[in-house]
Design brief:
single chain; 540 residues; alpha/beta; 9-stranded mixed sheet; 28% helix; binds adenosine monophosphate
């Protein structure tokens, strides 16, 4: 027997409509690439999102077409989020930290038809525009009179002019909630990035769960600063949850240094801020130097990489700010677990140990740990295993990857190795996937190794991550030389230029006699990392 409730699809347009109706005067504050602090509100964002949707109609962009953004966190990016997805197109957020070659590959693979970008990225767009045949329109987030006098980009459009020519009277279409709403590429171990395609349904359910008290605990009374970029898994879904609860949003634009972030927190009464450890490292260093304290900040979400215990102590003990240590993935929209106690019993030391784990699953995320043979491991806080997840906001396949679904019996293997304790708190102990995360951004070790392997005199090369105080992890390349051959360290490092983004270049070359290999001849990175555990990066 079927239920007899109304069959209203879960659509992203419903969130912005709610924010427009009930929170229209709530502020949206953005530091812009122009350098100023811009103020608007949910009502205006909603109206401009409708103008954006109408402008896409005028440009004849069909439902399902991909509209990309290359932009920092700000109100225009937010309007594009809702204007694109709400009108049944697919929002594709591009990561400006990638190299022009990587970006070109991603734009072509996604088949983007429109690219909207912050004017600071004009040189990057000019570098790739000739190699992106699917792109019909390039749109600069600028007024008509701010467009460059000359540019390589043919028919460069002004976002403001497009909006002006469009009407704010627009009816959001109703369609299947399983339709794609947005996409985000993540770095793959095979070298080529992989596209994750979210749906309206997955986005709304995730947004609802993210707002819960034991998740991000967001309400209309909050002022939220997502330092995590909107091109990283939709800023962890915060724009959607923020519209849903009607909270104030504060966007840092391109300025993520300690002073800029601190000034925004204090100036805009921020109560909750979210970002990767590297960002908080810079903020805390600034506060140390200037002897500053927080006056409004209550919670900080730390995720993307493990929260260092010293960082936890500074926020909690020194500043009285709650740390929400969260774990998730692009493939998971991204929320998987959040560290919130079930009750306040236990001594502070036990609580600290618990909260430094990656947290317990949010409702909607089912998880298990298994050994290499697929046998489920005990939840005793000791047994480690490969972490697998499933749920309504977790991917079932990558976008046109050509490799088939990554699921194993319906479960997605995360590539993380973890323990789960009897209370359900998960702790990451290692990573089985062959990637390195530096400052919240992925580096594919295979790409780095292939470049080294092509260098004269290199017999074998392994790229591994080593701890770094600011960037969490930095890549180094471990090299076995061919017999009787010398390899010049500086020349090898110089050979990365132009092949990968500058920050993806290894920090050092370490020469060894042999790299440990497993029974199948595969490099054993875990063993290698253990062998090099006393290695210290130069200048740290
Ligand atoms: P991404 O898809 O870029 O969001 O990266 C997801 C991956 O980042 C996870 O599979 C983990 O390897 C890592 N990660 C995310 N959050 C944490 C965390 N709190 N602690 C440790 N690793 C994390």
């Amino acid at each position: 027997m079927l239920g007899i409730m109304q069959d209203r699809p879960l659509l992203i347009s419903s969130i912005i409509t709610h924010a427009e109706r009930f929170h229209s005067e709530t502020a949206i504050v953005s530091r812009r690439v122009e350098g100023d602090l811009h103020r608007t509100d949910w009502g205006t964002v909603a109206k401009r999102a409708k103008r954006m949707a109408g402008a896409l109609d005028t440009l004849a962009i069909a439902p399902g077409s991909r509209v990309a953004t290359l932009a920092w966190n700000g109100y225009r990016h937010l309007e594009t989020y809702f204007g694109v997805s709400g009108s049944q197109r697919v929002l594709h957020t591009l990561n400006p930290r990638l190299s022009p070659q990587q970006l070109t590959w991603i734009v072509n693979h996604a088949g983007d038809e429109v690219v909207c970008f912050d004017t600071t990225f004009l040189p990057l767009m000019e570098a790739v525009c000739d190699q992106c045949p699917t792109v019909k329109h390039w749109v600069a987030y600028a007024a008509e009179d701010q467009l460059p006098a000359t540019t390589k980009i043919k028919n460069l459009l002004s976002y403001e002019a497009l909006l002006e020519a469009s009407s704010e009277v627009y009816e959001w279409p109703i369609f299947d909630e399983q339709s794609a709403s947005s996409m985000c590429y993540t770095s793959g171990t095979t070298g080529n990035p992989k596209g994750v395609l979210y749906s309206h349904r997955s986005t709304i359910i995730h947004a609802l769960a993210a707002g819960l008290p034991d998740t991000l605990n967001l309400s209309a009374r909050d002022s939220v600063l997502p330092v995590v970029p909107m091109f990283h898994v939709n800023a962890w879904g915060i724009p959607y949850t923020a519209a849903l609860v009607g909270c104030k949003l504060v966007f840092p634009g391109p300025a993520m240094d300690g002073q800029s972030v601190y000034d925004l927190i204090e100036g805009e009464g921020v109560t909750m801020a979210a970002g990767v450890p590297t960002v908080w490292q810079m903020l805390l260093a600034h506060m140390d130097k200037e002897g500053k304290r927080f006056s409004t900040l209550k919670r900080t979400v730390i995720g993307g990489s493990a929260c260092p215990p010293a960082m936890y102590d500074r926020f909690v003990d020194q500043f009285g700010v709650q740390v929400l240590h969260a774990w998730g993935m692009t493939e998971m929209s991204p929320l998987g677990t959040v560290g919130v106690l079930k009750n306040q019993s236990g001594d502070p030391q036990t609580q600290r140990t618990q909260l430094l784990k990656q947290g317990r699953p949010v409702f909607g995320v089912d998880m298990k740990i298994v050994d290499d043979a697929g046998q489920t491991q005990a939840w005793d806080g000791k047994a480690t295993g490969n972490l697998l997840v499933r749920g309504p906001w977790i991917l079932s396949d990558y976008y046109e990857s050509g490799h088939g679904s990554p699921l194993v019996d319906g479960w997605f293997p995360t590539g993380d190795v973890a323990t789960i304790d009897p209370q359900g708190f998960m702790q990451i102990t290692d990573r089985s996937k062959d990637v390195i995360k530096s400052g919240g951004e992925w580096i594919s070790s295979i790409d780095i190794e292939n470049i080294a392997m092509a260098f004269p005199g290199v017999m074998m090369a392994a790229c591994i991550g080593v701890p770094h105080p600011k960037w969490d992890e930095r890549p180094i390349i471990v090299v076995v030389r061919k017999p009787d051959t010398d390899v010049d360290k500086a020349a090898l490092l110089a050979s990365y230029e132009g092949k990968v983004a500058k920050w993806q270049t290894p920090d050092d070359v370490v020469f060894v006699e042999a790299i440990p290999l497993g029974a199948t001849g595969k490099m054993q990175k875990m063993v290698l990392r253990e062998q090099l555990k006393d290695y210290q990066l130069p200048n740290t």
